[in-house]
Design goal:
Number of domains: 2
Number of strands: 5
Structural class: alpha+beta
Helix content: 40-55%
Domain Myb-like: 9-61, 62-112
Domain HTH myb-type: 9-65, 66-116
Distance between the termini: 66 Å
Number of helices: 15
Pfam families: Myb_DNA-binding (PF00249)
Subcellular location: Nucleus
Radius of gyration: 25 Å
Largest sheet: 5 strands, antiparallel
Order of helices and strands: HHHHHHHHHHHHHHEEHEEE
Strand order of the largest sheet: 2-1-3-4-5
Strand content: 5-15%
Biased composition (Polar residues): 313-334
DNA sequence: AACGGAACCAACCGCTGTTCA
DNA sequence: GTGAACAGCGGTTGGTTCCGT
């Protein structure tokens, strides 16, 4: 025998709450405290379902709710926490005093998500995506209005990549930080390398298909996320503890969110150029630790390549999980070894064919 | 001023894990 | 042990407001 029904399903009021109803609910909870939502509506004289009362209280009437516009620090924390936790709105809300999960969810969907898309950043994976972004926005903002000859050269150099969306994404992780001086020159050097890598990967994928080998076992998406997050957090030079993060770090369960700050998000998002990938923020002295980082390029059967940069990917995101698990033919890792060399590794039967050390082409330390 | 589309957000829906009779 | 209700959560809806034409 189970419990008695909580309430009659019919005859209960739905829709927006009136001030009178709010008053009744607040008065009752002030006197009796919250809890036992089943009997609360009847005792408080409300023609509402207990669930509706609970939602109204927790999302709107609770005295500790902070209303009004989100501050910059709150917005920053939301983006960062979302990059770690995914759509775990309650978990995010627990780290933002006075904000409800519903409010954060609404704010994400109506403000932050759209802005990230405008910036060319996938709001699910937090990875820069050039298919969401105009090529011209890779350049520094002023270039969009007054392009220099170098800017135009960069655009021309990018043109051959137009048919390779994932290489464009990879390029986007390098180019924004390399707008001046030697770094810009090195970025130009990167472009032919990207094309070379693309062709080599296609050749390896073709060979792998001809050998008709089963796809390599894939780690669970959550496991991959934890590994990626851990690796990101272990990278020196990535810790960027703003006051918000220091507050978060007071709670052990927030350790990852706090220490990963620099690896995941910079402090400002008004400009996509501020969204510098973790790699760009590293000091040259950290090069010895680079073996812990890699960018993964996974190829699917239809040759639609996916690039995950060094930023962490939420495990709870179905899209992200799908992206990880959809790889079937060849998984190629774009990484950096202990010397700071760019290394491409295909972890299937063709792996041996595709280990390229690129220190001759590109001095990666200039980007760190 | 009127209209239509976009943006916003409170509230609901449906699912899942937990609690309890 | 069982099953129904509870509590909590994320996704979605629909009413309202804003804004451009």
């Amino acid at each position: 025998m189970g419990r008695a029904p909580c309430c009659e399903k019919s005859g209960l009021k739905k829709g927006p709450w009136t001030p009178e109803e709010d008053e009744k609910l607040v008065a009752y909870i002030k006197e009796h405290g919250q809890g036992n939502w089943r009997t609360l509506p009847k005792n408080a004289g409300l023609s509402r379902c207990g669930k509706s009362c609970r939602l109204r209280w927790t999302n709107y009437l609770r005295p500790d709710i902070k209303r009004g516009r989100f501050s910059f620090e709150e917005e920053e924390a939301i983006i960062q926490l979302h990059s770690i936790l995914g759509n775990k709105w309650s978990a995010i809300a627990a780290r933002l005093p006075g904000r409800t999960d519903n409010e954060i969810k609404n704010y994400w969907n109506t403000h932050i998500r759209k802005r990230l898309l405008r910036m060319g950043i996938d709001p699910v994976t937090h990875v820069p995506r050039l298919d969401l972004l105009d090529l011209s926005s890779l350049l520094k903002p002023a270039a969009a209005y007054y392009p220099t000859q170098a800017d135009l050269d960069t655009l021309r150099a990018l043109e051959p990549l137009a048919g390779y969306p994932d290489l464009l994404r990879l390029a986007s992780t390098f180019l924004p930080a390399a707008t001046t001086g030697a770094a810009a020159e090195q970025a130009q050097l990167l472009l032919p390398w990207l094309l070379q890598a693309q062709m080599a990967q296609q050749a390896a994928a073709t060979m792998a298909q001809q050998q008709v080998t089963p796809p390599p076992p894939q780690a669970a998406a959550g496991e991959q996320f934890l590994q990626a997050s851990t690796a990101a957090c272990q990278m020196p030079g990535l810790v960027h503890a703003s006051p918000t993060q220091q507050q978060l770090a007071q709670h052990p369960q927030d350790h990852m969110a706090a220490t990963c700050h620099g690896a995941v998000q910079p402090t400002s998002y008004d400009n996509q150029l501020d969204y510098v990938p973790a790699l760009m923020q590293m000091a040259p002295s950290d090069a010895s630790n680079l073996q812990q980082w890699s960018s993964t390029v996974s190829s699917s059967n239809n040759n639609n390549y996916n690039v995950n940069s060094g930023v962490s990917t939420p495990s709870s995101s179905p899209a992200a999980a799908g992206q990880m698990n959809s790889s079937s033919t060849t998984t190629t890792t774009y990484g950096l070894n202990a010397r700071g060399d760019v290394v491409i590794t295909a972890d299937d039967d063709a792996a041996g064919l595709l280990n390229m050390h690129l220190s001759e082409l590109l001095d990666v330390s200039d980007y760190m």
